[in-house]
Design brief:
The complex is a heterodimer. Chain A contains 16 helices and 15 strands. Chain A is α+β, with helices and mostly antiparallel strands. In chain A, about 45% of the residues are buried. By secondary structure, chain B is of the alpha+beta class. The longest helix of chain B has 23 residues, at about 280-300. The chains are: A alpha+beta, B alpha+beta. The interface of A and B includes residues 58, 73, 278 and 281 of A.
Chain lengths: ~400, ~400
């Protein structure tokens, strides 16, 4: 299944490339764990042996260190993964890196166990600077649901040939629902916060720049489009990618309904991690959201799954019919009956982040891609799946 | 190239006399990646010299990681020490070369960190407080093994063994000492500044006004390490402090323990950033409350008498931190200064400017003031709650609702 990536280091595909090469060097085709992704100073093999970005510091006795670490002496050693010896983020970095290689189809993650896929092994045979690497990676990024959603949004937002980064929003939708607890109105925290949206967008834009789908205006025109990954490397290596204006370069017909997204978001990841609910002084909001999370996941999954089936059968989805059918199963899908239609309209935004963006055609939703339904279903309860099986067919037109 | 030489005769004499068991230097060896730098090959001891330049006090700072404030009090670090470059790469005045240190005086912003930290006073200071070293051979790559060799059998020699590297301590210029005597005497002290368009940071104020985690905090740790006399003093960064009420526990920037005094420091790069974030009004009282609670529990269980003080450290322009009615104040616009001082009074927060911390270090080094830091914590902050803060001009006290007074430190 796919997880939402939201840490900036994962945006550097050159670092991801080094990570995959290190993992293959150390584990081959065998399974490994999230903790194995971290740099281990005691191990004989480390990501540094595959990293081409290590900088030499003459003011530190010629020491070589990751240039992205603020403290070059830090035992973290690698900005992408942090290290076993030093990880102030408590495995968030390693986990996000693992999510990135999973999302790209280079690895398959099952809980904390991971294994490189055949595509991941294929990557280890490609030199970063080669055109083959770029061609390969251009295909791999299109595996990842949120990346595809981002591209489609960028296409929608293009004006005069320019996309403004701030106009593209990749995050969980926020219906701003409320509920009552002990007589008080409490807001359910279902949407992504601004900082998370910013981070996810930064990662996906970095991927798009490396693979040539988006070119920052300040770098335009690129001399050799068959090597955008090397032509834009100096830009990607900056600490922050501040450019707001981009030129979109999508292949024709990318969103004609044929693109197959192998790693859409799954049922499990239809809502943000409850650990991420850290709002200060809003303990009640956090508790309530965790209690109601199931229904939020169910209704979002219903949208994604319905669109997925529609795309598979080359049909459109009658949204109103879907909503009407879902309402007849309130225990599974409905929090507030009076607000349900409004809520579901907002929740349809999950489709973009999941990797199955759509176009409205009067009352129908036309999916613009196809998704791997088996991946989307991971974690979905049986009763939800069987319920949706009954509902969806009648909502397809 | 220089290397460590072990005089076998002196070593044997010390062993025969019972002064040393022949293994002491290995015990003091400052290992690199867990491997001893002194190893035996037959009767000879050789060294890779890694330790000599990897552990320079002037070049490398360190602090420990603790998972919580409680573990900090109990001295239970959670991981290996975190090292950092004392001279940040945005300044890069001090460079650690293969065989020696070099200091580029033109890049030095007079932060004092390397100078304060050199235990042998091998770094010279010019009248603008800038660091310099006269020549490479006078820079001693010191090592604990040399210091602690009872038989004085260890020394640094050049490759051809014909020259022994001597050390020479530099005196602090008298002009500096006279200037330092005027610190905290009622007048604002201007920290030196370079006139350079090429450097990212051209003064201490500019350095401390940006990048809290890579500039201000490591530098402040160096200052606190200078001020703390306790051999067992300990320092931590990003310390989790357990809170009872908040669903999200807090993380303090710096913690330092010196004898029985613990200080919790929340740092901010500038007054404007502090006011824009506006979290310090909640953070500091919370740290005070929870810090005291945890300290009391620890004192009871460990039968100790530790006192905890919470301070706000503010970097950047010190003149922004002067009271609104003071002539030096440069933050009257938008009522920043007035707002800041109102918050300090309302929430019983005490602050110290980065410049004042720098000045305290100079005071200690030049005027040989032992226990200065504990004196400051106890007498200026903890026992005098009406004191709002410390600037290079002196202690800031509140006179009435709108007026403040700066009094010299006696």
């Amino acid at each position: 299944m796919s997880y939402l990536i939201n840490r900036n280091p994962s945006g550097r595909l050159i670092c991801i490339d080094a990570l995959v090469k290190y993992l293959f060097d150390r584990f081959g085709k065998n399974e490994f764990q999230i903790k194995d992704v971290k740099f281990d100073a005691r191990a004989s093999k480390n990501i540094h042996q595959h990293c081409s970005l290590l900088a030499t510091y003459s003011g530190l006795r010629g020491m070589r260190a990751c240039p992205f670490l603020e403290n070059k002496l830090s035992p973290a050693k690698c900005y992408l993964t942090q290290s076993i010896q030093h990880d102030t983020q408590k495995s968030k970095s390693a986990s996000d890196a693992a999510n990135a290689i999973d999302g790209l189809g280079l690895a398959a993650r099952s809980g904390s166990n991971i294994r490189l896929t055949s595509d991941g092994i294929r990557l280890t045979q490609l030199e970063f600077a080669s055109t083959e690497w770029l061609q390969f990676m251009r295909q791999k990024v299109l595996c990842y649901g949120p990346f595809v959603g981002m591209l489609q949004q960028a296409q929608e937002q293009t004006s005069g040939g320019t996309v403004l980064k701030r106009n593209v929003n990749i995050g969980y939708p926020d219906p701003a629902e409320t509920t009552r607890v002990g007589g008080k109105v409490v807001t359910i925290s279902a949407g992504s916060t601004t900082d998370t949206i910013t981070r996810t967008r930064a990662v996906l834009f970095a991927w798009a720049v490396t693979t040539g789908y988006l070119i920052p205006k300040i770098l335009s025109p690129i001399a050799d489009l068959s090597k955008t990954h090397t032509e834009t490397l100096s830009y990607i290596k900056q600490k922050t990618l501040g450019s707001q204006d981009y030129e979109l370069r999508l292949p024709n017909g990318l969103f004609n309904g044929t693109l197959f997204v192998d790693r859409p978001l799954s049922y499990h990841t239809m809502t943000k991690s409850t650990k991420a609910l850290r709002e200060r002084g809003q303990k009640v909001s956090r508790t309530v959201t965790m209690q109601l999370e199931g229904k939020i996941k169910n209704r979002r999954f219903a949208v994604v799954h319905a669109l997925g089936v529609a795309s598979q059968t080359r049909k459109k989805l009658d949204f109103q019919e879907l909503v009407k059918k879902l309402q007849s199963y309130p225990t599974l899908f409905v929090l507030d009956k009076a607000q349900f239609t409004r809520t579901m309209i907002i929740e349809t935004r999950i489709a973009s982040i999941a990797g199955i963006p759509f176009k409205r055609q009067k009352r129908a939703l036309l999916p613009l891609t196809r998704i791997n339904l088996d991946v989307a279903k991971i974690g979905a309860p049986e009763n939800v799946l069987s319920c949706l099986e009954k509902i969806i067919q009648s909502a397809l037109i | 190239m220089i290397r460590l030489q072990i005089n076998s005769e002196k070593c044997s004499s010390a062993v025969m006399a019972g002064k040393c068991n022949g293994e002491e230097c290995l015990r003091f060896c400052e290992r690199v990646n867990g491997t001893s730098c002194i190893f035996k090959v037959g009767k000879k001891r050789l060294t890779c010299l890694q330790c000599l330049s990897n552990n320079l006090s002037c070049a490398f700072g360190a602090y420990s990681k603790y998972s919580s404030f409680g573990n900090f009090l109990e001295n239970k670090p959670s991981s290996q020490e975190i090292k950092f470059l004392v001279c940040n790469e945005d300044v890069a005045a001090l460079q650690v070369k293969e065989t020696h240190l070099s200091i580029d005086r033109k890049r030095c912003i007079s932060c004092g960190a390397c100078f304060f930290r050199c235990p042998y006073r091998l770094i010279a200071i010019d009248p603008q407080y800038r660091s310099q070293i006269c020549s490479p051979t006078e820079c001693q790559y010191v090592s604990k093994c040399i210091d602690n060799c009872v038989g004085k059998a260890l020394r640094i020699v050049t490759e051809n063994q014909s020259e022994i590297v001597e050390t020479k301590s530099f005196e602090i210029p008298q002009s500096i000492i006279e200037k330092v005597k005027q610190f905290f005497k009622g007048k604002k002290i201007d920290v030196p500044a370079l006139f350079s368009l090429e450097q990212k940071c051209s003064s201490l104020e500019q350095f401390t006004s940006t990048k809290e985690t890579s500039h201000l905090i490591p530098w402040a740790i160096c200052m606190l390490q200078t001020l703390c006399d306790d051999q067992d003093a300990r320092f931590a960064n990003e310390l989790h402090i357990e809170t009872i009420e908040n669903p999200r526990d807090a993380r303090v920037d710096i913690c330092a323990k010196n004898y029985n005094e613990v200080v919790i420091v929340e740092s901010k790069v500038s007054l404007s950033k502090l006011l824009a974030e506006d979290r310090y009004r909640i953070q500091l009282p919370l740290y005070k409350k929870e810090g005291e609670r945890i300290t009391i529990d620890y004192n009871e269980s460990a039968n100790e008498d530790i006192s905890t003080t919470v301070l706000l450290l503010v970097g950047g322009k010190e003149s922004d931190l002067f009271p609104p009615d003071h002539q030096e104040c440069t933050s009257r616009t938008g009522n920043q200064a007035a707002t800041f001082y109102q918050h300090l009074s309302d929430h019983r927060i005490q602050f110290v400017s980065a410049n004042a911390l720098w000045a305290l270090c100079w005071h200690k080094i030049c005027l040989d003031k032992a226990d200065l830091w504990n004196y400051v914590l106890k007498n200026i902050f903890r026992d005098s709650q009406e004191n709002l803060g410390l600037l290079t001009a002196g202690i800031v006290k509140r006179q009435d609702r709108y007026r403040y007074l700066i009094t010299p430190i006696k």
